[in-house]
Amino acid sequence: MTGATVACRAAGRTHVGYVRSRNEDSFYVGDWLYAVADGLGGHVAGDLASATAMEAFSSYDRSVSPANLADAAGQAVEAAGLAVRRAVRNAPEVAGMGTTLVGLLHSGCNAVLVNLGDSRAYLLRRSGLRRELTRMTEDHVYGNLVSGAHLVPMLPERITRFIDGRTEGRSADLTPIDLQVDDRILLCSDGLSSYVPHESIGEALCSPAPTEIVADDLVTLALDHGGHDNVTVVVVDVVANGSSEGA
After folding, report:
1. Residue-wise pLDDT tens digits, 72-100
2. Stretch (H or E) spanning 114
3. Nearest to 164 by CA among 39, 28, 12
4. pLDDT by residue (tens digit) across 116-129?
5. Which of 26, 36, 59, 95 could staple 187 via S-S, CB 3.0–4.6 A?
6. What are the CA-CA distances from residue 189 to residues 115, 116, 159 (Å)?
């Protein structure tokens, strides 16, 4: 049903975890736009960075034509960067703050994924009688820039691209997706993906439960694996337009 008119239903959840004293993640669930941002640990005001970027990014939650999706997504990222830059200009003591961002903007069956940093997007899609989970984003970390990085011991997992109000080297990956009825998309901070195995994430997403319950289950999984970091998830179901049932 790739060509069918589709709608999206989504739910988001966040938890501070068991180790951190504050939650530096933010998420947004709208009509056309869904996103997760993770303020960078070790930087000042990570919570302010993620919230500021998300407020600006989410202002692009609007209906756009499929031909304009990539432009709109790129403009949303630029707006997020500008908002962070203004926040730093108004409060120099937070200079150096930054945040990751992963988001989905859709128009019917067409969508664009936005990615900066190491927050991730996954796609659960039916293939024959099975549903397969595919990671749709690449982590922007130092190790992915080094040829043969797996052979280098103790290579730092430093994030190389993120939103910090600068323009140089801060462009986002924009990935087009053709949505299909019964797709389930996960956007998440690394509080989930760094601690919960890919297979366990896939098992949770395969649940027939609605997005709210699946989002709760994914957060619980992260907590059961130690809750070492803030964890945030947004689960998006793609359904036939007018359907009363989730994916």
Report:
1. 999 999 999 999 999 999 999 999 899 99
2. strand 110-116
3. 39
4. 999 999 999 998 88
5. 36
6. 11, 11, 13
